[in-house]
Amino acid sequence: MSDIVITGFGAFTPLGTDAPSTWEAMLLGRSGVHHLPHEWAEDLPVTFAAETAGDPSDKLDRVEARRMDRSTQHAVVAAMEAWADAGLTLGDDNGIDRDRLGVCCASGIGGMQSLLSQWDVQKEKGFRRVSPFTIPMLMANAPAANVGLRLGARAAIHTPVSACASSNEAIAFGLDMLRLGRADIAVVGGTEAVVHPLPIAAFAQMQALSRRNDDPERASRPWDVDRDGFVLGEGAALMVIETLEHAQARGAKIYGTLAGAGISADSHDIVQPDPTGRGQAAAMTKAIKDAGLTPRDIVHVNAHGTSTPQGDVAEAASIAAALGDSADQPWVTSTKSMTGHLLGGAGAVETFATVRALSDRRVPGTINVENLEPNLPVRIATETTSLGDGDLAALNNSFGFGGHNVVIAVTNAHQNR
Amino acid sequence: MASTDEIRADLAEIVNDVAGVAVEDVQLDKSFTDDLDVDSLSMVEIIYACEEKFGVSIPDEDAKNLKTVGDAVAFIERAQA
User: Fold this and answer.
1) How many separate domains does chain A show?
2) What is the reported pTM?
3) Ordered mean pLDDT values, 10 residues apiece, chain A (417 residues)
4) Is-contact A18 A12, C-beta < 8 A?
5) Do residues A234 and A355 share a domain?
């Protein structure tokens, strides 16, 4: 079976409007979280979030942009960047067999802003003013379908939905697509755009969000003793993956290897993770095995680490359980301390960060940890930390409401040196 | 009372806004679908934008007969009269 390698990255995040600026901000420990400068946010219980660093429609044709939900805009912009970063063009003469090109782009929630704004239009102005583009804007597969249309993908287009594990699941299914021989190259990742009063109110009603309204930049603080919930973020990351043969045949630069994936389900509760951590640990163990690695090989874990009181401690225990005697070896970090929680975009942004950590041999630190939770069974990187020489392997964890656990294993094998 | 050309010019702005067609291409003899490449969903948006802009009602059964820019301008002129 061919190795599957990563040859292009695109990102549109709270830290930057492209992948290089996002990665640079992570290494510098910047926060993308801010007070929401919108009138609608004033009376909400939570008045801050991590909105993307720019307007995605600025990078799109005006007419196309107004027919896309913001979640699709994020995805299309990131996908175009990833495609160009992979050294590919959009013409028919770009050397890509479109029948062998797939897309797997997740969204946790879909085009919620379009749905809600058109319902407002219908209530205020009547049904004849509802946009005829409402359905193709709100459907959850719209980001994937629009990316596929742009690139001319004809092998298959998929949209896995598993809440906050969605984009890791998309990467895992993209890996399957290539391993099963259904495509030679694919664009995979995920997107989200639900910074809107309803989801903020709804997550706040679950007591899931940080209430640190007076200090938003320090609100996302995984493993700090004063953490009080996650910070809502938005944005997208997409990456180009291909079989090693396909990448080498076209002389592509290689960032690293998408070495394996591990998927499990808690089967415990609709929103609470299994307190035993069995499901999370199982997903990590499966990912390590699928990648042909052992726990000893794992030098870095980009954790789900959402900054919730129970979740962070439970995940540290799950990592320790999965890695056993090697639990104290990897540098564990949560880039959500900087990006906030991108929900269905989170896994993709964090897999990007994990691959870049290996290729740069630097792990971005978890910011805002002033008082580290005592007695954690793993070591947390709280500043940018160097990794060693040689072959490196890492995990990226994503866990979602519904009990979905998806772990991606990556290595720096085949990387251009 | 707006002149034929004023209505055409306002309609051209709407077609440009909804479908990205160049304003100067929106002439009376042009077919929305065959010449201007306006798809059926965009046509729905154009119709309701016209209703708001020109203060007229364009029922669905009439809208489907508006094949050219000239058809639409003539309908709006009659409806405003």
Assistant:
1) 2
2) 0.96
3) 94 98 98 98 97 98 96 98 98 95 98 98 95 97 98 98 98 98 98 98 97 98 98 98 98 98 97 93 98 98 97 97 98 98 98 98 98 98 97 98 98 84
4) yes
5) no
Is residue A293, in this structure, part of any structural domain at all?
yes
> What gap in Å lies between CA A357 and CA A207, rounded to an integer?
33
Q: Assess whether A144 and A194 both reside in one domain.
A: yes
Helices and strands (H, E) in chain A, number of each type:
13, 15
**Residue A281 domain boundaries:** 261-410
Q: What range does the domain containing B59 cover?
A: 4-80
Which candidate, A172, A11, A7, A168, places its Cα nearest to that of A96?
A: A7
Q: Which of A61, A62, A132 sits opposite B45 (nearest CB)?
A: A132
Q: Do the chains contact at B41 and A133, CB–CB below 8 Å? A: yes
Using DSSP's 3-state secondary structure scheme, residue A277 falls into: coil
* Count of structural domains, chain B: 1
Task: Give per-residue burial for A234-260: e unless 16+ CB within 10 Å, then b.
Answer: bbbbbbbbbbbebbeebebebbbbbbb
Name the token pair of A306. Answer: 């959402």
Q: Are residues A243 and A290 in the same domain?
A: no
Q: What is the CATH number of the domain that holds A330?
A: 3.40.47.10
Asked if A231 and A122 sit in the same domain, the reply is yes
Q: Structure tokens of A308? A: 């919730």
Regarding whether A300 and A161 lie in a shared domain, the answer is no
Model-level ipTM above the cut of 0.85: yes
Rounded (10°) CA dihedral A324, A326, A329, A333? -30
Chain B contact probe: residue of A114, A125, A127, A133 with most B CBs at under 10 A: A133
CATH code of the domain in which B20 resides: 1.10.1200.10
- Return all residues near A291 (Cβ < 8 A) that are at least 6 apart: A259, A260, A393, A409, A411
Query: Rounded to the nearest 5 degrees, what angle is found at the Cα of A131, between the Cα atoms of A128 and A134?
Result: 130
Smallest CA–CA separation between A105 and chain B, in Å?
25
